[in-house]
Write a structure and sequence with these properties.
The complex is a heterodimer of chains A (114) and B (110). In chain A, the strands form 2 sheets. In chain A, strands 2, 4, 5, 6, 9, 10 and 11 form a 7-stranded mixed β-sheet that branches. Chain A has 114 residues and is mainly beta. Chain A is globular, with a radius of gyration of 13 Å. Chain A is built from no helices and 11 strands. Chain B is mainly beta. Chain B is 0% helix and 49% strand. Chain B has no helices and 9 strands. In chain B, the strands form 2 sheets. In chain B, strands 1-9-8-3-4 form a 5-stranded mixed β-sheet, with no helix packed on it. In chain B, strands 2-7-6-5 form a 4-stranded antiparallel β-sheet, with no helix packed on it. In chain B, a hairpin with a 5-residue loop joins strand 6 and strand 7. Chain B is globular, with a radius of gyration of 13 Å. Classes of the chains: A mainly beta (114), B mainly beta (110). Chains A and B meet through strand 5, strand 9 and strand 10 of A and strand 3, strand 4 and strand 8 of B.
Chain lengths: 114, 110
């Protein structure tokens, strides 16, 4: 158990819809990262938040957005969903303790867009 | 240009030592070498990290030659539960998003 929690575990929705994925980082971790893993693209970094502020952006689509709240939990919002958005979405967190570049990944949310 | 190159897949038997080599010819002075393990439908898990020479922990060893253009992850006495995808990453300290390549699919047979 990494200490990172994600909800929901599974999500099935239709094209054009909007969903929100939630992540709670490990206790004390200020950084939250979102990743997407699909069969064709592999594991890709989407976005990072640090203590409530956006810190880095990766391959995140304009239809996707995220935020980190004062209690440090984070939400990833996916809108105008397309079939190709079906993937595993992982949240990770990191903090002062631990190795450089050690990120603790949650169990993921499997999104299926029909 | 990919930062790392590693075998697509490998297989071995229980009880054997497995070595997975990763090439990173363009590694920069500020880069660290990190390995992650991922089981199906689970998030990646940090295994080990190093800058040069040899690093050992309770699950693996990491060998890095002096030129740092490659590294080898060594898993001693593997078991069936070591079947997973292993990713080699080259990142600066405090990297924001991690860059995962294709990884090496390691299959351990009885």
């Amino acid at each position: 158990d990494s200490g990172v929690t994600q909800t929901p575990k599974h999500l099935i929705t239709a094209t054009g819809q909007r969903v929100t994925l939630r992540c709670s980082p490990r206790s004390g971790d200020l950084s939250v990262y979102w990743y997407q893993q699909s069969l064709d693209q592999g594991l890709q970094f989407l976005i990072q938040y640090y203590n409530g502020e956006e810190r880095a952006k990766g391959n995140i689509l304009e239809r996707f957005s995220a935020q980190q709240f004062p209690d440090l939990h984070s939400e990833l919002n996916l809108s105008s969903l397309e079939l190709g958005d079906s993937a595993l979405y992982f949240c990770a967190s990191s903090g002062v303790a631990g190795w450089y570049n050690e990120q603790f990944f949650g169990p993921g949310t499997r999104l299926t867009v029909l | 240009l990919a930062k790392t190159t590693q075998p697509i897949s490998m297989d071995s038997y229980e009880g054997q030592e497995v070595n997975i080599t990763c090439s990173h010819n363009n590694i920069a002075t500020n880069d660290y070498i990190t390995w992650y393990q991922q089981f199906p439908s689970q998030g990646p898990r940090f295994i080990i990290q190093g800058y040069k020479t040899k690093v050992t922990n309770e699950v693996a060893s990491l060998f890095i030659p002096a030129d740092r253009k490659s590294s080898t992850l060594s898993l001693p006495r593997v078991s069936l539960s070591d079947t997973a995808v292993y990713y080699c990453l080259v990142e600066v300290v405090g990297a924001d998003g991690l860059t995962f390549g294709k990884g090496t699919h390691l299959i351990i047979q009885p």
